[in-house]
Amino acid sequence: MAKSQYSFKTAVDLSKALRNKQVSAVELAQDAIGRIERHDGKVNAVCVRDFERGLAAARAADAAIARGEHKPLLGIPMTVKESYNVAGLPTTWGFPPHKDFVPTEDALSIQRVKDAGGVILGKTNVPVGLADWQSYNDIYGTTNNPYDLGRTPGGSSGGSSAALAAGYGALSLGSDIGGSLRVPAFHCGIYAHKPTFALLPSRGHTAPPAPPIIYERDLAVTGPMARGAADLSLLLDVMAAPDPLDAGRAYRLDLPAARHAGLKDFRILVIDTDPVLPTDKAVRGSIDKLASHLDKAGAKISRSSPLLPDFAASSRLYMRMLLSFLAATFPPEVYAGACAAAAALPAGDTSLQAERLRGIALSHRDWVQATVARSRLRAQWRELFNSFDAVICPIMPTPAYPHDHAPDQEQRRILIDGVPHIYTDQLAWPGIATLPGLPSTAIPTGFAPDGLPVGVQIVGPWLEDRTPLKLAELIEREFGGFVPPKMFDD
Q1: In the chain, pLDDT over 70 holds for what percent of residues?
Q2: Distance (Å, whole) CA 263 – CA 147
Q3: Model confidence over 14-25: pLDDT tens digits?
Q4: Arithmetic mean of pLDDT, 36-50
Q5: How many CA within 13 A on the CB side of residue 143?
Q6: Which of 328, 394, 461, 468 makes a 20 to 30 Å CA pair with 103?
Q7: Average pLDDT in the chain
Q8: How many whole angstroms separate alpha carbon 388 and alpha carbon 300?
Q9: What is the pLDDT of residue 3?
Q10: Which ranges does the record mark as transmembrane (predicted)?
Q11: Does an H or E element contain 44, and which?
């Protein structure tokens, strides 16, 4: 079967084609299913297939379109991250003991996607516990990058990014606490948006076998992934709004409009590297090229500012708060060993690796003090966004690296311009937006010399998600966006 003209179209384009009766929802679903059946033996992105129910949803969408109905996602084929509860499908988070766990109700985001007419074709692969930038586990195996099968597609939403890059539907749902939306987008040349913290309800995005009740989760968010910038807003608007069981009893969502409508009006701070975690030549070059393009397009570009919060201090704080949160679920023996190692650290060791150890052992008193420091950080960002509309900065220091499944991530190394760095220090760049809870839109900016995708994140002001999203659209319109991998030219 030849590649359909719709295989790599955006959701916005597909919606228009559906409304104009140029294609049917069933045809779009069949095209995506055909691509999964032909190519996913190599990529292994869609770990749970739901084709029968997906085709039924597509038939229902066609009937609704014939009746003249309009819904935001009506008839759009898509996937969702394995970590979301979908009634009748397994939710494992990659944990072998829970391979047979099947929820009986949809996560709230899944329910909203279905209500909006989305056609879900399957669930995408994740690392164990969503705790890696590589997507592999003993239940479903390893997901490969469609641009180079020997490399990671990113994680933890790596199955979703690979699915989008391979043409398995126009949209996907992911989540992010350590870059899990933005890193896969970067490594697979697609788009993703980490929303302002708590903007999207997370009920049903829950590790098995926990019940789908409302949990308070520090730092973690869910969010949209796509092959086009405008699609992010389309899916965000479907997913967003308070949970009706909780804040939705009293609050309604009313996001501010984007600050500007044209590139020439944006004031942008561009950062391409930092000694805390340097970026390699390909990443720096891509950012510098984008900055030059934006400058020529009339945007006001600054390459440094005293208003930018201290990256070293905020990165150390992020490491402590992140690991304090994650360590709550560590097995007792692992937790005890980490606490002993933290106690033995020299007081003067302020490396990111040392701060992660300290975070595991953080007392509640220390955590409260850390939240005060985070409040000061948020105030600094508010001040910065009085002078700037967005900050463009790296997502990761290098393009996608070869698969490395060494069990101790702290012992893994990445090479940045030939110099080895600790694998887990890569948390620093995603953390720039995660710690203060700011919205951040990941966009592709082209390719490294070896053909691997590169990109940037656009960090915006608190609850002003529409500003980085709008800037992403303008950049895509002006300079281009997603380019399909050549291996899928069938």
Answers
A1: 99
A2: 30
A3: 999 999 999 999
A4: 98
A5: 39
A6: 328
A7: 97
A8: 9
A9: 56
A10: none
A11: none
Q: What is the pLDDT of residue 489?
A: 61
**C-alpha to C-alpha distance for 234 and 449, rounded to whole angstroms:** 33
User: How far is 337 from 90, CA to CA, in rounded Å?
Assistant: 33
Q: Which H or E run includes 372?
A: helix 364-387
Give the whole-angstrom CA distance, residue 467 versus residue 260: 7
For 13, counting Cβ atoms within 10 Å of its Cβ (0-12 exposed, 13-18 middle, 19+ buried), the class is: middle
User: How many alpha carbons fall within 13 Å on the CB side of residue 487?
Assistant: 17
Identify the CA nearest to 379 among candidates 302, 309, 457, 467.
Answer: 309
- Give the pLDDT score at 118: 98
Residue tagged 């490396």 (tokens): 351
* Token pair belonging to 59: 């038939």
- Whole-number Å distance between alpha carbons of 62 and 69: 10
- Contact status, residue 127 vs residue 156, Cβ threshold 8 Å: yes
For residue 44, what are the CA distances in angstroms to 234, 276, 394? 27, 34, 27
Q: How far apart, in Å, are the Cα atoms of 31 and each of 4, 158, 169, 337?
A: 7, 22, 9, 51
Query: What's the CA gap between 156 and 427, in Å, rounded?
Result: 13
d(CA 467, CA 451): 30
* Cβ–Cβ under 8 Å, residues 60 and 120: no
The answer to pTM > 0.85 is: yes
Q: Which residues pair with 192 in a beta bridge?
A: 225, 442
Mean pLDDT of 370-388: 98
Dist. CA 240–CA 413, nearest whole Å: 37
**Mean pLDDT of all residues in 99-117:** 98
Query: Which phi and psi angles does 419 have, rounded to 5°?
Result: -100, 125
Tell me the C-alpha to C-alpha distance, in Å, between residue 257 and each of 79, 438, 465, 468, 471: 28, 16, 9, 11, 12
**Which pLDDT score is estimated for 410?**
97
**Three-state DSSP class for residue 222:** strand
User: What six digits make up the tokens of 191?
Assistant: 């788009």
CA–CA separation, 146 vs 42, rounded Å? Answer: 9
Residues with Cβ < 8 Å from 265, sequence gap 6 or more?
Answer: 259, 299
**Torsion sign over Cα 396, 402, 407, 410:** negative
Helix (H/G/I), strand (E/B), else coil: 341: helix
CA distance 122 to 53: 9
Domain range annotation of the chain: 11-263+482-488, 311-374
The CA distance from 414 to 397, in Å, is: 9
**Band of the pLDDT at 216, cuts 50, 70, 90?**
confident
Q: What number is the average pLDDT over the span 371-400?
A: 98
Token pair, residue 332, equals: 């007792």
Q: What secondary structure letter does DSSP report for 173? A: E
Joined tokens for residue 19: 């409304």
Tell me, what amino acid is at 9?
K
Q: Does 1 score more than 60 pLDDT?
A: no
